[in-house]
Amino acid sequence: MRWLVLLLPCLAPAQFPAGLLGEWRAQVSGVTMTLRFEPGGRCSVDNDRGVCKLQDGWLTFRSDDGELERYAYDLAPGRLTLSGGDLDEPITFLPAQASPQTPHARRFHQPKWGLSFAPPPNWNAAERDGLLLLGSPTEPGLIVIRFQRRTGEPQLRAGYAAGLEEAGMKLVAAAPIQTTQAGASPALAGELAGASAEGPVTARVIAVLSPFGDAAVILAITTNANYARLKAHADALAATVMFSEPAKFAARDAIAGQYMYYYQGASGGAYSRQEVLNLCANGTFSRGGETHGSGSAGAAVISSANSGHWLADGDDHQGAITLIFRNGDRDELAYRKSGPDIVLNGKKYGRFGDGACSQRSP
Is residue 266 scored above 60 in pLDDT? Predict the structure, then answer.
């Protein structure tokens, strides 16, 4: 393919946005075309090395032998499109798999999830309480990756619309969630905004869907002043995500136990609700509860109880529980461990016994 040559001023080295760094490939008339972007403004087109510059929607390449080329570009998470010049139609490049020669060579692997990705330069990843946390010694902000099993686009959209309220911080959707592409995987992306103890914050959210029915949800949060750079990091990270089949895990052994949920309120009278769920190690369960209410019309106590057997699909941090009742009915519960306790469909149950199910509820 012939590239358009323009007589432009000499290009000075420049920094690229993090989402552009690395290797990109496209098929052009049956031939693989490769672009590489390096820190400091260095780049290459196939085997021609030189300097690249981005300005006002244009990408200009000056090869080491002095040749100059210029194309319009559009950069999105996991996608780079070049158009104009002598191109008959736009060409879309996708990130190539990381190799030792690219800035994305350092990859983090989580085999239980079947997930790997390349952290941003000078960022480190560590696992804690079922989450992956990424931080940098030189840049402000935090990147959190949560693996959601057995989920899909409707559930992810609903979770985005609900926002996030945790640890004294409340975030709400600041823009509609968008369908996009993260490398070779479909994804949803949006922005949350709100306040923390340190002031206004903004978060980039990217949910990358796996071919195994799961999703890696990336949340990159920082102050408004530092958001643009962290957003670029999050988009670049999402473009490097790769999936393999998650490891099989005996989730039932990790979450078997006796749990209780208790709620008390007052509105025109006293009201309380207690729910007990026994998930026994032998595969059986029992669930019961009591609701107490009192007011001007008197007091009432309503009790309920049922049982059957249960299944779990997930790991020692999160997944899904299926309750199968004696009459054949089923109930699906999303679970997430919180220390010794468990969160079921958003409600936190305190653990008071182990899988032997021998304890009486408090």
Answer: no
